[in-house]
Amino acid sequence: MALAKISGENRRSKSILFLICCVLAGIFPHLIDPTKNLIPSITLAFFLGGYGLRVVLRDRRENYQLQNEEISKEKEFLETLPKVDVLVAARDEENVIERLVARLVSIEYPEDKLSIWIIDDGSLDNTPKLLKELSQNFNNLNVLSRSRMSGGGKSGALNSVLAKTDGEWLFILDADAQLQSNVLLRAIKLAIKGGWSAVQLRKAVVNCEFNQLAAFQAMEMAMDAVIQRGRLSSGGVAELRGNGQLVNRKILESCGGFNEKTITDDLDLSFRFLLTRAPIVIMWDPPVQEEAVESISALFRQRERWAEGGLQRFFDYWPLLISKRLTNLKKLDLACFFLLQYVLPVVSCIDFILSIILSRMPLYWPLSLVALSISSLAFWKGCGKNSEGPKLPSPNVINILGATIYLAHWFIIIPLVVLKMSLYSKKLVWAKTNHVGL
């Protein structure tokens, strides 16, 4: 099965089947002998808890870290740098576009080997006007405009510029990205010397001190980086995160470019790279900085999109994920991740509803407790690391407890998304996060 031919068909029927399986799994323990009804959850807790603990402990500071980061003195390396195209898909970004361009033109990289492209995807605010003015001031800034109705979401915007670029590597950023001037040099060095096909920068939050919700998101991103790096060092899978991803152009083209049938281009592309046997690495420092959403409603909208896109890729690619394209370690990693990230919240929801109806204790609490405990350990480890980006929240007991409780929002969002995917056919729209320019 060719990757380019995967079109995301029958997602609704697959969602229904997934929901039915989760309902049966949630009901099953309630049908067996009360003296044995905790066995399924305890068994899964040992298995998945052992996996999660191994992943978190496998992430170490020295993993995937360049031994010598003083690149400016490496004359031979600087002379052989590949050409890079910086790509940004922007829609209604008047609050951040000027700051973004200022950051991009200050990137430390040979001018003749760096090209900056911003795709104005049918903006209705002052973004087009600002980009026109900026392009007159900076020679290596290129602006491509397309209609708001062009379709394909962010993937469509990125695909529209590929034919106009010729860089060996593509550095993809969001419009609210803030980054150190030497980050591209360091990412390119890591990619080339490590033999990686893509480098994902750790994501950091610039407004983590705005409120507690933003602080928890900062902790969540640090936790995510710990888990991704731990999965990779355990023989598993690391994933792209959209903002701050450096990808090899030839590999991107070999797996069909950006998928315009998905709402999360980064998660989908992660599986395409995986199935093309193109390894992705997570670089801890320096991170790419972005804005955290500052309200519960905005958080839920953002996480619903992430949850749906995450499930879409498993539904789309599952025949290839269980094929001989992947090693057994990668299959095990994906299975454990799928169970913890997507199955557990839905099964726990069914279990909780049944416990209320039957007036008894939920039966999957051991597994949920272990999963949240592993997350707490990852919070502690991630926030305890040194960071070249914004200062991470202190990994004290209060912050870790609060962040762990904050993670419970996935136990609400995932079941709701699965239900929506089962009931309604999805119409692809670019549901972008609003940026205020912090």
How do the helices and strands line up, and which of them pair or pack?
Layout: H1 11-27, H2 39-58, H3 75-79, E1 84-90, H4 97-105, E2 114-121, H5 127-137, E3 141-146, H6 153-162, E4 169-173, H7 183-194, E5 198-205, H8 212-233, E6 245-248, H9 249-254, H10 265-275, E7 280-290, H11 296-321, H12 328-358, H13 365-383, H14 397-406, H15 410-423
Parallel strand pairs: 1-2, 1-4, 2-3, 5-7
Antiparallel strand pairs: 4-6, 5-6
Helix pairs in contact: 1-12, 1-15, 2-8, 2-13, 8-13, 8-14, 10-11, 11-12, 11-15, 12-13, 12-15, 13-14
In short:
Helices cover 51% and strands 11% of the residues. By secondary structure, the protein is an alpha/beta fold. The chain folds into two domains: 160 residues, no CATH class; 217 residues, Alpha-Beta Complex (Spore Coat Polysaccharide Biosynthesis Protein SpsA, Chain A).
